[in-house]
Amino acid sequence: MESPPNRKRQDRFVGTPLAQVLGIVLALFLGITFMLSGLYELFCLPMLVGVAMYVVPKVLGVKSTKVLLGAGVTYLIAISCIGAFIVSPAYVDSYDTAGSLDDGNFSDAEMTPKGDGLYDITVIYVGTGTDVEFHYNDIVILYYSSAGMSTPAEMVTMTSSGTTYTAIDVDLGDNKLEYFFFEAKSAGDLVDKTGMMIYRGSATDGEIMTMALEGNLYFIGINIMFVYFLVVIFSFFSRRSLENARERMEREGRLYPQGYGRCKECGALVLPGETCCRKCGAFIEKPEIITSAPVYEEMECSECGASVPADAERCPKCGEKFDGEDESEPV
Asked: pLDDT tens-digit profile of 85-141?
């Protein structure tokens, strides 16, 4: 028979400095792996990762809100820099393939700058289509291996000279990234189409990295870290509210202070006022912190029988006003 897990050993490990460091490291590893693997493109998964990055450290005993917030800021900066300086530039380079275009019946695309952001576009097409179009769109945000484009896309109909098609004075702008592709149609029906490509024009590596850094900070901050920070802050205020409620109940004698309230024989929970354990029947001794607390005299309302403080002027239950000793009786 398989022996049950050693829960006491697990409990001793959770909350130790080693466990807390391990929790933070695992959370950071989870978030980094999520972005590098491309899973961030799946619907709603980024938000779940934000929650998971909070849960993992908490399970391993991280309680400090400052530590959790610090880990979140560290992740946001680190993963954004990795994307901006490594992943996104490589992504742009991998799609900057106009000069080596060989996609079906399309080949040898060329973009010739003419100044003031204007370009002449040429491409070789040997298919059955009669009309060739050049579609392009500004890239407005760059994050990891993805990009966001402005809408709607622009389209230019190209003129033909044999198998060479040309578009004159296309305004692609300066220092911008452009998504583009070619389409061939016949009688309005799509015949051929290239894959998406990126043209970086005169945009420098520094400009691309700056654009990617802004995009990564925005995307990761909104889709992952917003949920993470929201959960951390919400849990902090919830925990503080519970602690305040517990302190109030302890002052009112409705709960034992933390560290008390357990049967010494069997460990079962006991409440103030109980003289024997409900589980094992052992006698319950009140802690000194309870027995030494001042005892306030109470009176009983003669109208409704409610117990009220001896110095009360009105019954909180029925509203009866106490004018003299005859209106209430000692408890």
From this structure: 999 999 998 888 887 888 889 998 999 988 888 999 999 999 999 999 999 998 988
Count of domains observed in the chain:
4
Residue 18 in any domain: the answer is yes
In Å, how far from its chain's centre is CA 85?
A: 22
Q: What pTM does this model have?
A: 0.67
| Residue-number span of the structural domain to which 324 is assigned | 298-330
Q: What separation, in Å, do the N-terminal and C-terminal C-alpha atoms of the chain show?
A: 60
Residue type, 132: V
Taking only Cα atoms into account, the Rg of the chain, rounded to an integer number of angstroms, comes to: 35
DSSP assignments along 283-310, one per residue: BPPPPHHHHTSPPPPEEEETTT--EEET
- Answer yes or no: is 32 within a domain: yes
Please answer whether residues 14 and 60 qualify as being in contact, where contact means their C-beta atoms are separated by less than 8 angstroms. yes
Statement to judge: residues 118 and 179 lie in one domain: yes
Report the C-alpha gap between 322 and 298 in whole angstroms: 13
Instruction: Return left, alpha or beta for 104; rule: phi > 0 is left, psi -120 to 50 is alpha, else beta.
Output: left
Whether residue 81 is found in the same domain as residue 19:
yes
Q: Is residue 293 included in any domain, yes or no?
A: no
Residues whose CB is less than 8 angstroms from the CB of residue 290 and which lie 6 or more positions away in sequence, other chains included: 253, 256, 257, 260, 272
Domain membership flag for residue 2? no
